[in-house]
Amino acid sequence: MIYIGAAGREWAVDAAVGDSVMSAAVRNGVPGIVAECGGNCSCATCHVYVGERFADLVGPPGDMEEDLLDMAVSERRDTSRLACQIRVTDALDGLVVEIPADQP
């Protein structure tokens, strides 16, 4: 998968099926994914923008995730998701996510 930082720098990361997008970022030292709650869907410090090509494959956020995204520091977009709530699947091979400039 590809993470794109706010300044445009890219990080290519191999992630195993079943990993979360957040855990793959943290394990590989991708900056900007703070992951304060450790993937428990109780903060919004792993907010990402899913690439348009993958938005339907990733699907919409759940109710709890919706509430957290509403409180995120960075701008919310139609493709906003919490990286801890996106599980890597074979269908997401090549997933691109953009990391907002401002994470708490």
List keywords for this structure.
single chain, 104 residues, alpha+beta, Ubiquitin-like (UB roll), 5-stranded mixed sheet, 5 strands, globular
3D structure, described in words:
The protein is an alpha+beta fold and 104 residues long. The chain has one domain (2-98): Beta-grasp domain (Ubiquitin-like (UB roll), Roll). The chain contains three helices and five strands. The chain has helices spanning 21-27, 55-58, 63-70; strands at residues 2-4, 10-12, 47-50, 80-82, 96-98. It has a five-stranded mixed beta sheet with strand order 2-1-5-3-4. A hairpin with a 5-residue loop joins strand 1 (2-4) and strand 2 (10-12). It is globular.
Explain the layout of strands and helices:
Elements: E1 2-4, E2 10-12, H1 21-27, E3 47-50, H2 55-58, H3 63-70, E4 80-82, E5 96-98
Parallel strand pairs: 1-5
Antiparallel strand pairs: 1-2, 3-4, 3-5
Radius of gyration from the alpha-carbon trace, in angstroms: 12 Å
- CATH class type: Alpha Beta
Instruction: Enumerate how many helices there are, as a single number.
Output: 3
Q: How much helix, percentage-wise, in residues?
A: 10-25%
Number of domains: 1
Mean pLDDT, rounded to whole units? 94
CATH topology category name: Ubiquitin-like (UB roll)
Low-confidence stretches: none
Sequence of secondary-structure elements: EEHEHHEE
Strands, count = 5
CATH architect. name: Roll
**Overall 3D shape:** globular
* Most strands sheet: 5 strands, mixed
